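Supplementary Text 2. Reproducibility record for the structural model of the 376-residue chain.

All settings were left at their defaults, and a single model was retained for analysis rather than an ensemble. We include the record here because the model underlies the residue-level annotations in Supplementary Table 4.
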Amino acid sequence: MNRSSKIQVTSILTFLFFGMTAISAADSESDIGDRLSIENPTSHGNIEVLERYEIGQSVYARALAVETGTNSLWVGTSAGVHEIDLRDQSIRNTFTREHGLANEYVFAIGIDQAGYKWFGTNAGGMSRYRDGKWKTWFPMHGLADYWVYAFAWQPDGTQWIGTWAGANSLDPATGEMKTYLSELVNEWVYGIAVDSKNRVWFGTEGGISRFDGKDWVSWDHADGLGEKNSDKKPFSRNTGLGTRSRHDLGVLSGGEATYNPNYVFSVLIDQQDNLWAGTWGGGLAWFNGEQWHNYTVDDGLAGDIVYSIAMEPSGVLWIGTNNGLSRFDGNEWTTFGRNDGFSDLNVYAVVVTPNGEIWAGTKGAVVRLGINKGDG
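Retained model, structure tokens:
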């Protein structure tokens, strides 16, 4: 891909993961209370940070999802779930285990065609919610694992679920759940996306896998996924082959960012069925089905550890990294960080709302970006 060419894509929002040890509600309470307007925000073109919503100093905002039918933003944190009214940014609901959520630590949120909200949790299985009613799935119900990190749907309603022990497909008509493990390049699944040909793409700890309904194919760093380690970052100890008790999820070694280009945090498919993948230290990867291209800090990306990706209908990319939030329009890069109102630079989740605003989830806060209409 020519770096100067425009990216024409559709708005496909992916929900993502970056792992930490689970924090119980007793240890960390999440409450979107303080709404902080940013004083003298830096304007990048006409986009700036409008407000920051504090959720608790030790609370992580891990997943964001827009429900267009109700004009809601769903926020998954390490201490529960919030539903926010996008019209005035007020809180409609807050859910914890007390209300029916399987576990307060939420890593993934998906919304299906019927309006069910699906929550993937850390060690608590998968919960579904609609109209005040809850249902939870555990491995005893066919779920591959208690750790659930990604959701995606095919046009016929077939649901795909990414876990730490493979991927599940869930038939909406029969409720039948199948598990795929050996077919994947790696069992630790963090991102799932579906393209226009109904093929399902999986971002894992060992690379990318794709399933067309019949055949599986996979790619990893040897095929071009993730940039080379030119600045010699320490290699991550994560192998994907360890037990959960020794599964290292820290991205730092001695305070320095580590490197594992096969480890994919998030995936997104654009309108041309190109794949975008966020890697651990290898930057942002782009794949057109034949060739890979990787974007790094040398190109303008804020950080080479990419946790999250979202796209505007116009094709503009928003990328959450370990060093701030990047915007890429196909030509130019823009970074939003501490000087713009971010209190933490690790951006674990990012989503585009129907009115064109951008919401980003970090440790301790959720940040809202958009056009400041009060500037005349």
